[in-house]
Amino acid sequence: SELTNLTSNLSSVLQQARMEPRIGSDGSVDGFCFSNIQPGSAYEKFGFKIGDCIKSVNGEPINSPGKAMELYNQLRESNFVQLGMERDGRDENFNYSIR
Questions:
Q1: What's the pLDDT score for residue 4?
Q2: How many helices (H) and strands (E) does the chain have?
Q3: 55: part of which helix (H) or strand (E)?
Q4: pLDDT at 96 over 90
Q5: N or C end: fewer C-beta atoms under 10 angstroms in the chain?
Q6: According to the model, what pLDDT value does residue 31 have?
Q7: What is the pTM assigned to this prediction?
Q8: More confidently predicted of 63 and 99
Q9: Cα(74)–Cα(95) distance, rounded to whole angstroms?
């Protein structure tokens, strides 16, 4: 139900957290990092922390706001999501099964 809430109302989603693009050494976007997460939000419930950077979804790099929105819209039809993230300087994969 949290994912349904997260994907059904984009306006609400955008108010629950703030993300900023991370620019790589070559000037391209290298993911999006949480700079703020509202307490009690869906992001907090999913375990995200301020400073986490989402770099890929299901192996596809997030290298532009348009790509981020495209992958966000695909979540509605997925039953499994793998997020490639950087947390505390380490690359990690977070796997979510959606029931």
A1: 61
A2: 4, 6
A3: strand 53-57
A4: no
A5: C
A6: 93
A7: 0.80
A8: 63
A9: 16
Per-residue tokens: 91:
């690359």
Asked whether residue 2 carries a pLDDT value surpassing 70, the answer given is no
**Please, are residues 71 and 55 in contact by the beta-carbon 8 Å criterion?**
no
Q: Give the distance, in angstroms, between the CA of residue 32 and the centroid of all CA atoms in the same chain.
A: 7
Cβ atoms of 29 and 23 closer than 8 Å: yes
| Strands 29-37 vs 90-97: parallel, antiparallel or unpaired | unpaired
Distance CA 84, CA 47 (A): 14
Q: Are 79 and 96 in contact (CB under 8 A)?
A: no
Mean pLDDT, rounded, for 15-35? 92
32 and 68 Cβ atoms separated by less than 8 Å:
yes
Q: Which two tokens stand for residue 16?
A: 């629950």
Nearest alpha carbon to residue 20 among 69, 53, 59, 58: 53
In the chain, where does DSSP find H-type helix?
A: 2-8, 10-16, 42-45, 65-74
